[in-house]
Design brief:
single chain; 641 residues; alpha+beta; 3 domains; five-stranded mixed β-sheet; 18 helices
Length: 641
């Protein structure tokens, strides 16, 4: 099934409205696009669509457990958080030669005010993710509180490499529990239980799925959950005695606690550990090819006599060395149109294996091209009249290079109103620089600069946001974000949406308010602001058909079942009068393209078939919007229901 969409002539499209499955999320529609005008894709984004290579898809949000909402940021309103500012400063210090990355868990613990929030690089248009975003934090420190680190937190010289690693992981887990307490995820009165970390036997490993591979595991989340439950019970009893409100302690399941711990653990530089995951309440650790050899490896002390040998990357030690006095590094960001680059693919493969635990043989060049290189977007070269950004419109790759070395690649679409972030992959050796977060800040800044050249270029789209998916919540940290209402396609402030989504996963957000920018519509390059506003009104309030009747394109949620049949006593002309925009949609039938109102007036097709086609066209119109619907032909086959 193919669709061609451009501005030159009527197009032939075959929208597939059958429900499918993509990454565990049901699809309302899918299209294969070979040519797609950037304005049309902008309009589709604003109707909840995304692309993966040449494939366009729209999730069926009502029928999935984890509805993905389109999320965006108006860049001129962006306010950076302290943590986002720290990420920028950290990278600048690295370039200046004054920062070389954390050397141990202990060093990072001492730098707790400069914590790295590591983003894992889940595709912005991917609809699957794992792990957690609840706030993380720290327990009491020092002997005075009774929870100071004991001598058992120090890895002694006579331990084996495996024992050293286990002790290091234990300390990291205690650190993560401490941080969760500091930020309120776990109660302040919590006593840290004994942390047990055990190796997983080869017999058990052989039974694990690829995505569940691990070398060590800890059940610490279970005693933590039991303790939290007990403290909650005490809180309720105390509240009853004193007539005070109770509710400060949040009861979490072992899995939820494990996911919170994973968030903190993923921020720590753990020598020898490649991946940390939460599964059924257990913390699982997958080792990298990292070996520790040292006469004394002291975790928790800043001055450490140690050496870390990383066999998977001979350059890592060099990268982590403090720079010589006066030494600086150079960061370059290069933008090029989407095309295959062998160096980029090599980095992508390294990233997928290290970060997403893919098998080397599973990372194929053909899949990479289909996912991140192929694009249907028709390139529009830059103009000097304020209608385009400096690079023009289309699909691009942004390369991040440090002293010429490729360290990250951002895959983006530049559209009439936005930079749409599609995917980012980075060198795992540079994880300590939080390149995922840094690149997002850089993309926001780029849009801000380009907006001066092209005033209609105002937004940063971060793909899909799933409220129940903790690893996606980082997207809402780019304040003030907006979510797209899945019913009326209006933009709603995240601050309005968040408490609603806390209660239920699917919400008609515009029932509760819209953002100040919600009425801003898409505009075609070269059109005036007045044209854009008129087009926006068309999208929001409907557009008038030849009959003079307004079709409610997005004002109200549409109950299509109520419209499935035309009343038996309605005449053909009466039915035509109600078609509105539906009558203007071109239909591809038996090798010909014809407006539906003309087809309905002239065809010998049974009326019940025409009524069913009309209903399908209304659904289609609601899902793709008025402009795209009238610029594409809807394919109909004889006997189609």
């Amino acid at each position: 099934m193919t669709v061609r969409v451009d501005t030159a002539k009527p197009q032939i499209g075959v929208p597939d409205h059958r429900v499918g499955v993509w990454d565990h999320v049901r699809l309302l529609g899918g299209l294969w696009a070979h040519e797609l005008a950037v304005q049309d894709y902008q309009d589709l984004l604003d109707r909840g669509w995304r692309r993966s290579g040449m494939f366009l898809y729209k999730p069926c949000m009502k029928e999935t457990c984890c509805p993905p909402y389109t999320i965006r940021l108006k860049v001129d309103a962006f306010v950076a958080t302290k943590d986002q500012i720290r990420v920028r400063r950290r990278l600048q210090r690295y370039l200046d030669g004054t920062y070389s990355g954390p050397q141990t868990v202990g060093e990072l613990h001492e730098e707790k005010n400069d914590v790295v929030e590591r983003e894992t690089g889940v595709p912005s248009d991917s609809i699957m993710a794992s792990s957690s975003d609840r706030k993380t934090s720290n327990v009491e420190q020092g002997a005075a509180g009774g929870h100071g680190l004991s001598r058992s937190d120090v890895v002694e010289a006579d331990l084996s490499d495996e024992e050293k690693l286990i002790e290091s992981v234990k300390f990291a887990i205690k650190t993560s529990i401490t941080k969760c307490v500091e930020k309120g995820v776990l109660p302040q009165s919590l006593e840290v239980p004994e942390v047990v970390v055990k190796p997983i036997s080869q017999k058990v490993k052989d039974k694990l799925k690829v995505e569940s591979r691990a070398d060590f595991t800890s059940n610490v989340a279970f005693p933590l959950a039991a303790t939290v439950k007990r403290l909650k019970k005490i809180e309720i009893q105390d509240a009853g005695k004193s007539n005070l409100q109770q509710g400060s302690i949040l009861v979490l399941t072992p899995q939820e606690i494990a996911e919170n711990l994973v968030i903190v653990l993923s921020e720590l530089f753990l020598p020898g550990v490649a991946i940390v995951t939460a599964s059924n309440g257990y913390l699982n650790f997958l080792l990298s090819d990292v070996k520790m050899s040292s006469p004394k490896y002291l975790v928790g002390e800043k001055q450490v006599n140690q050496s870390v040998h990383v066999t998977t990357s001979e350059q890592l030690l060099e990268l982590m060395k403090p720079a010589a006095p006066g030494f600086t590094r150079k960061l370059e960001i290069r933008m090029a149109r989407s095309s295959f680059d062998a160096e980029e693919f090599a980095l992508y493969k390294k990233y997928q294996i290290a970060v997403h635990n893919d098998r080397p043989e599973g990372v194929r060049e053909s899949h990479y091209k289909q996912f991140l290189v192929d694009t249907p977007l028709v390139f529009i070269p830059p103009a000097n009249n304020g209608t385009t950004p400096s690079c023009g419109y289309g699909s691009f790759h942004q390369q991040y290079r440090v002293d010429g070395k490729l360290v990250a690649v951002g895959v983006i679409d530049i559209l009439p109103h936005c930079l749409s972030s599609k995917y980012l992959f980075w060198d795992p050796d540079f994880a300590f620089l939080s390149l995922g977060k840094y690149s997002a800040l850089q993309e926001i800044e780029w849009v801000q600069k380009e907006q001066r050249l092209c005033p209609t270029f105002q937004y940063y789209y971060l793909g899909f946001y799933i409220h129940s998916c903790p690893k996606m919540r980082y997207k809402a940290a780019y304040y003030p974000s907006e979510l797209l209402c899945p019913e009326r396609y209006r933009w709603v402030s995240y601050e309005v949406a968040r408490p609603l989504l806390d209660k239920q996963s699917y919400v008609c957000l515009s029932d509760f308010g819209t953002s100040t920018s919600a009425s801003e519509g898409s505009s075609i390059p070269g059109k005036t602001r007045g044209d854009a506003e008129a087009a926006a009104r068309d999208d929001i309030t409907g557009r008038q058909g030849n009959s003079g009747e307004v079709y409610e394109a997005s004002d109200e949620p549409v109950n299509w079942e109520e419209r499935r049949h035309v009343a038996a006593d309605d005449g053909a002309q009466s039915a035509l009068d109600r078609l509105g925009l539906v009558g203007d949609i071109s239909v591809f039938l038996a090798g010909s393209v014809i407006p539906f109102k003309q087809l309905r007036a002239s065809t010998t097709m049974p009326r019940q078939h025409l009524d069913k086609i009309a209903t399908s066209l209304r659904i289609y119109l609601h899902n793709v919007g008025p402009r795209v619907a009238t610029r594409m032909a809807y394919a109909v086959y004889e006997g189609q229901d």
